[in-house]
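tool_call: predict_structure(chain=1)
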Amino acid sequence: MDRRGPTDLLGDIKDAEAVNEAVYNTDAAIHLAGLLGTAELTNNPRLAVEINILGTLNVFEALRAHKKRAVYITLGNYFMNNTYSITKSTSERFALMFNKEHRTDIRIVRGLNVYGPGQKAAPVKKFFPNAAMSVLKNEPIPVYGDGEQIMDLVYLDDIAEILVRALLTENIPNDVIYEAGNGQPTTLNYIVGLMIRLADSQSVIRYLPMRPGEPKNAVVMATEKGLAYTRDYLGFEKFTPLEEGITKGLAWYRDHLSPADSAPQLSSQATAR
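tool_result:
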């Protein structure tokens, strides 16, 4: 990064030589590359391993070789037995191992349910953009399961700030997990209801069978310890209130909604409420 800002590099994380060169030519890195998807990766674990684990090891080995600092983002549902969670949590443990055994300085940020402007609705079906488009079109909102899953939403700007602080703050431990979540348990039903109210929408919830890899009534929350690390070492504790963040997110999708955008197709097994 120079006075003009960051330099864009196009490459493949699986290409160890390209990754090594990119790390060599930078001061530090925030590692965000990865293959996303929960249900989408159920039948393709091998590619996820190649990218999320082996590709990430390419990054870690380059950081070790060139003694560069980095931040690695992981996920809140690290404990789930689905391809995405397994591959990301494995790489999280590799980061801790590299720090201990190879003296690297990889700071780990565990992002909870990130939402906000700009998130794509496809090909990986993320909750917030799909729900936002449905709400704004007064169309049924797909919810998998009974909607009583507990989520910990973190606004995009908040996690961006945490990632930058994790990268730039000197002399902080790298054997802990810095968590990015507001620590407030919220059901999916409540979140959808809030979106409907804030958008003054006529949408209704359409309940669908659970997708592969997602347990019913899951609880995905930041821990007090992880939030304390973020507060005490990174100096961040004021998270964007949920209503404010959703309002900003809905405004962005309203401005960027086009006639070509379509809400998810609903299963014939769905039930409305």
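agent: The two ends are 51 Å apart (CA to CA). Proceeding to next step.
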